Amino acid sequence: MTLPIISSMSHSFPIKRMIKAYASGGNVLIVTTILALIIANIPAINQYYFEFWEQKVTLEFAGVNLFGHEMTMMQFINDALMSLFFFSIGLEIKREVLVGELSSFRQALLPIIAACGGMIVPILIFGFMAQGTDYARGSAIPMATDIAFSLGVLSMLGKRVPLSLKIFLTTLAVVDDIGGIIVIALFYSTSIHYMLLVYSLGALFFLYMGSVFRINSKLYYAFFGFIVWYLFLNSGIHPTISGVLVAFCIPAKPVLNPKKFIVTIRETIGSFPASEDETLTKKTIFTNDQLSWLKRIESASDKVISPLQDIEDSLTPVVNYIVLPLFAFSNAGIYFGNVELSAIYGGVGLAIICGLSFGKFIGIFSFSWLAIKLRLAPMPYHSNWKMLGSVAMLGGIGFTVSLFIANLSFVPLGALGVELLNDSKLSILLGSVLSGLVGYILLHLTLPKTPVETDDDD
């Protein structure tokens, strides 16, 4: 998903890998979501499905509950596993700021402005429709764009989509995630235990010192990262925020200078005479000297990749193929037997659908139009207004973060919250499907019929 932070390398290669990873993960999300909906509505087994997520989960060591309090399976997924998702988002944000699309202010300005519009307008629409209601606290639900689903739809159109549009949507979704993180931190915290936060600052300090002293051990960062997560979990601040803060403390510079790495490789490889190549087979037993040379290469390879890149590359498949599908499978299961049509054309459902399908499009497109007309940023390369408007429609695919914020908004409300959450899940799915379907049709009609760029898969 990433490449070493070397200034001479092109920025487009890592963004292409990221787009492919998210697009592939989006396909898995679609399958798990459909599977959850099917199982939740099969009378013979749906009871077991819903009861499973209420099972108690504990993690004990020497008789001590490492969670600090009892958690259900659903809470474990939403509070623990999703912290890994936000940790990966934090790593992604840090990399993008250092060497990616957010490292150049002018290059990043259009998607940043568009993302701001895509967050502000849906919140205003939802807030206007929810004035004086019990579901007003869910105003942030339609503000998010699901990067995996939206890029998954975009990938269905192949090389007809200009790379600049893919980068625009990816960067927009990353900025959306930043907005979601800020909202969760500010508005979804309970009674705060300040001493635990003070202790967490101490753990974050040790993480930061790991960067200062160029510690390369992933175990070091995992240990102090877990401590920060535990303290946040029990402090009243939502634990997913800890994932982002820990990510920002992971060092982005490698221990070994890349130039020194290349020199080490050349010197070590030179120790193996070319005349002995034919003697090296699968049955070869290395001498102590040869083993030492190979260990030297292995050690240098570990040190030339920064902890940030190493962890992000290792974590990406775990998040895309385990954490997010599990989150979707547990949270997207809706029993339609209790759903009334009024949930779609009224109340919280209508507010969410309007926020996602219309608010996101209006916000992204109008703010982009202003930025381009005022010459604050250029139109994406190989694109036009029709294509930009079509991509803006894909911004209404909320899903993951929208479901996450819906849980934070309504679970604390008890019995009323259960009904609101069920209606919210249905409308998030409908709004996302509507945005994805309309966006795909518009792109199919407006994109060129032949590939725009031939190096898209490099």
Specify Rg, calculated over alpha carbons: 24 Å
Beta-strand percentage?
under 5%
Number of strands: 4
Query: Sheet bearing the most strands, described?
Result: 2 strands, antiparallel
What structural category do the secondary elements indicate?
Answer: mainly alpha
Report the total helices. Answer: 17
Strand order of the largest sheet: 1-4
Helix content: 55-70%
Unreliable stretches covering 5 or more consecutive residues: 1-10, 454-458
Q: What does the overall shape look like?
A: globular
Distance between the termini: 13 Å
Mean pLDDT reading? 85
Give the H and E element order: HHEEEEHHHHHHHHHHHHHHH
Short account of what is shown:
By secondary structure, this protein is mainly α.
